[in-house]
Design goal:
Layout (H helix, E strand, L loop, with lengths): L18 E2 L15 E8 L5 E8 L2 E5 L5 E15 L4 E4 L4 E4 L5 E16 L1
Antiparallel strand pairs: 1-2, 2-3, 3-8, 4-8, 5-6, 5-7, 5-8
Length: about 120
């Protein structure tokens, strides 16, 4: 049975930690470090709703249409999101923000980023 409430842990699963992830294309990483990890705490059967913790090394990615609705809270690291109109916002530990599905953004992780996420596809 899927739990109806649970705690999101910043280090992933309490005993297994986090596993490999491949959301970021190799050519987008901006250093030799290409580490990306994730732990999904909850997902619906059709994967239309997901929540978990994700970490990624510095990278720069231009996204023509953000693939999902996503709310995030930064645990550590630095991320700058530049919108299609050129406006930019930098997020650091403790900041929560939202990106709408279809938004044109440039995603620039300047320091290894760890975040909690809630995705609605």
């Amino acid at each position: 049975m899927t739990p109806t409430s649970f705690r999101l842990l910043p280090n992933g699963h309490p005993t297994e930690g986090m596993g490999p992830s491949d959301m970021t294309a190799a050519e987008c990483f901006t250093s030799d470090n290409k580490t990306e990890t994730n732990h999904t705490f909850f997902q619906t059967e059709d994967e239309s709703i997901l929540t978990g913790v994700w970490e990624c090394a510095p990278c720069l990615e231009e996204i023509e249409a953000y693939p999902v609705h996503e709310m995030m809270t930064i645990i550590s690291g630095v991320l700058t999101v530049t919108n299609g109109d050129g406006s930019a916002e930098t997020y650091t530990a403790g900041d929560s923000f939202y990106i709408a599905k279809g938004a044109k953004v440039t995603w620039h992780i300047k320091e290894t980023l760890r975040k909690f996420y809630m995705i609605a596809a």
